[in-house]
Amino acid sequence: MIAVADYGVGNLFSLCASLKYLGIDTEVTKDPKKIKEAEKIILPGVGAFGDAIKKLEECGLSRVIKEEAKKGKPLLGICLGMQLLFERSLEYGIHSGLGLIEGEVRSIKDDMQKEARSGFKVPHIGWNRLDIDESDPLFKYIKNGEYVYYVHSFYAGKCAESVIASSYHGIKITGACRKDRIWGTQFHPEKSGTVGLNILKAFTEV
Amino acid sequence: MITKRIIPCLDVRDGKVVKGRKFQSIKEVADPVKMASFYNEAGADELVFYDITASFEKRKLFNKILKEVASEIFIPLTVGGGIDSLEDFDTVLKCGADKVSVNSGAIKNPDLIDAAAKKYGNQCVVLSMDVKRVDGKFMVFSMGGRENTGKDAVSWAVEAVVRGAGELVINSIDADGVKDGFDIEMLSALASKVSVPVVASGGAGKMEDFADLFEKTGVQAGLAASIFHFREVEISDLKKYLKEKGVEVRI
Q1: Domains of chain A from N-terminus onward
Q2: Fewer C-beta neighbours within 10 Å, C or N terminus of chain A?
Q3: pTM of the full predicted structure?
């Protein structure tokens, strides 16, 4: 069974529909016990980092997710869920994350300005080409250069060692990251058509 | 690089997809779930569903259809038609919509844009506007294009973005259903004034119209209905054509 962590952030309809479509036994839960029992964990999320990490802590899920991930249980963070895996975020102040992967969540706009890039709209919304590390098991069913769907204004930086996929939007945007058995995707696999379904399928098989 | 998007639009009435010309003489086409699945296979980048029924009973039917579509199609879905309140946002989001398009509801109550953006995020709120030339000026119309609101289109677009709209769909009433190309003049005038993505709607009749749109204006997406519904233009052919023209598209 795959547990989808439900901590009151965002709409889980599409994610659950995708997993159901793939025939995966899924449980949407806020119960730490279920997270412990699950074979794998998905941490979704949209919205602001500070609000999300607070909610995750309040419902008691952050501790159990950290413990399980450290024990080697496969974990996939999606969008804001991926950002939460890092040490900290600079979105509206400085917030501590779960600290499972080294790096920080930074403003696309600020970093674009530092590199004097213009003509790129923020939020980064739409389909973008994904350059992947083809050896990663998360990408075993997709090819390099396929398109995935993004919606975000902040991105994971200072995390070069864990980047396994990226897209270009004025700056290099971390598309996906990995450390040990912990994966994260900034894009929405549940909204990225067949490519996205193939990524979710690969995660269920790691 | 972010690709330009091709978006088929499905107007749904009494559970069926319809297409009108200049918003009148509505004609029935087909089953929305089957059509959504067809467009998904064909490479559409996103789907837009407008509920053009009014009654409560029929609305429940629309929501049921939306759920069916969202359970099978895993690309972004935008839903509009009769969105007047945060409850309406909530209902369609729970049925699987990713973005919600407001039109007359936001004209009546502009604060709805602020409230929805705050609750669901800017990326979720799409302002759709029906624009028509009146004495050489671009004016906003409501009630499915029947009523001149007296609002200037450029100021309304700018105001909506300030209030929190994350995307604009601009439909030219003058060009709608005529199939003589997008309203380049209107779209250029509006798209250059806002920082958010703009979706062009109304007037697409052939593949060249999309190339023209992306070459001459800064819009991010082209939306059309009848040319796709009647298979006068196949999305896969259109994308190949645009790619050859140097427009970045998802193939």
Answers
A1: 2-204 (3.40.50.880)
A2: N
A3: 0.92
